[in-house]
Amino acid sequence: MRPEKRLAVKEIKQKLEACGSFVLADYVGLTVEEMNGLRNILSGNSVNFMVVKNRLFNITAKELGIEGLEKHLKGPTAVAFLGKDVAAGAKILVDFNKKTGKLELKAGILDEKLMDHMEIKTLAELPSREVLLGIVAGTIQAPIASFARVLNAKLSSVVYAINAIREKKVKLN
Fold this sequence. Notes:
The chain is α+β, with helices and mostly antiparallel strands. The protein has helices spanning 3-19, 32-43, 54-63, 86-100, 117-124, 129-172; strands spanning 21-26, 48-52, 77-82, 104-110, 113-116. The chain contains six helices and five strands.
């Protein structure tokens, strides 16, 4: 393998190891302007998007133990290396495809599991990481808040009872 190809494989390998999840897409028909716009949107969400050579990407994937991509590595291929919020990255890709019709999602890997284009679309429908964390926090907080309200009501009842007794004693004296 030529040195420049080894360098390309090394770069792909570093990005795959850093993110762990990615989506492969066919970008035929995208103009340079559209491609740059998509890259800008994705980079704002910690997603790196680059065109790859199928053979080099396949070599890299096999080195990392990723299997099953061969049939998806045909024709022009770009890869979106998803950041922490994989659902947000997938959503951007799916929405961009809906808007332009020029980005065909091929396959992807999420937590070492091969996903087809339909699973990627399903992933895109999930709320963002922040929203999911908010839902979890709200779910955890709700019983605690209810418990605090019950305790507050009981304490208020005790305070009202003590206050009533005190007022009664004041009237008697």
